[in-house]
Design brief:
This protein has 302 residues and is α/β, with parallel strands linked by helices. Helices cover 44% and strands 23% of the residues. Helix 1 packs across helix 4, helix 2 crosses helix 3 and helix 5 packs across helix 9. The termini are far apart. The C terminus is likely disordered.
Length: 302
């Protein structure tokens, strides 16, 4: 049974005559007649009483209307949903990001995007660079916002900005003097760092090693909130992304590192062989470049 024939049948019911249906569909009246005749031939029953100018449905016509029109409504809904998916008004966005970019940048952008496209669904995975990169490589995520992925994953990395590291100290600490500190000032201090394998952890360990500082690791945690609270409890000094601890929590002091502070390059991670992104994902990528690309340009200018 041809869908076009059902659409013609629906138009005849709606318009009340073959001629009116032909005008509504932009068809010649003989074409409308042919569509109805082919439906009747398939069913072996007349669908309309041909007597009089107005086409009244037969019992078979009533049956077809009851069964076929819901199918046409479902087809129309499917067609509209496909159109929304095609132009980016709906669909599922699967994004991964590291902190603080996830909460401070990605989430606000996703909220604004969904206000314009209310049928979008979003899955946001917050993890370290390793977890985000593996999920992108495995096809579980469409896009990652993190540091450079492991080379063996074969992913594409587009740098956007540098996440500067800073020190969070207990208020009243001997180093909380309001002046920029040097990496060497951390010699012997109990350090609170993110977990092993974290890109931020590798960045600060590399800076310590480069300055010849023997680290004194007192606490490691994947939770920034835990590290902030540990500093407040005078557990030690936390080395964290500056944006994650700005403003400094009560009972703590934020200190910059002198000269060029250790920083982590953050950007977009994608599969190299992926097809062109759907419109909603492309819109998000453009927004991320516009927002996150500014710090990179400022750093380059400085």
């Amino acid at each position: 049974m041809d869908l076009r024939h059902l659409l013609t049948f629906q138009a005849v019911i709606r318009e009340g005559s073959f001629g009116a249906a032909a005008r509504a569909l932009g068809l010649a009246q003989p074409t409308v007649t042919l569509h109805i005749q082919e439906l009747e031939r398939e069913l072996g029953l007349a669908l309309f009483d041909r007597r009089g100018r107005r086409r009244l449905r037969t019992e078979a016509g009533e049956l077809l209307a009851a069964r076929a029109l819901p199918i046409l409504d479902a087809w129309d809904a499917l067609f509209r949903a496909a159109a929304e998916l095609r132009d980016g008004r709906s669909g599922l966005l699967r994004i991964g990001a590291i902190e603080p970019a996830a909460s401070q940048n990605v989430t606000p952008l996703l909220a604004r995007l969904r206000q314009r496209r209310p049928h979008l669904r979003v899955r946001l995975e917050v993890s370290g660079t390793g977890g985000v990169s593996r999920s992108v490589a495995n096809g579980e995520l469409d896009l990652g916002v993190c540091s450079a992925p492991p080379l063996e994953l074969g992913l594409e990395f587009e740098p956007l900005f540098e996440e500067e590291m800073a020190l969070l100290l207990p208020r009243g600490h001997r180093l909380a003097k309001g002046r920029p500190l040097k990496i060497r000032d951390l010699e012997g201090e109990p350090l609170l760092l993110t977990e092993q394998g974290c890109a931020y952890r590798r960045t600060i360990e590399s800076a310590l090693q480069g300055s010849g500082v023997q680290p004194n690791f007192a606490l490691e945690s994947g939770s920034t909130a835990t590290l902030r609270e540990a500093v407040r409890r005078r557990f030690g000094i936390a080395v964290l992304p500056r944006r994650a601890v700005t403003p400094a929590p009560a009972g703590t002091v934020l200190a910059r590192l002198a000269a060029r502070a250790p920083a982590l390059v953050v950007g977009l991670v994608r599969r190299r062989e992926r097809a062109s992104p759907p419109p909603a994902l492309a819109a998000l990528e453009t927004a991320l470049r516009g927002e996150l690309g500014h710090p990179a340009r400022e750093a380059a200018a400085g």
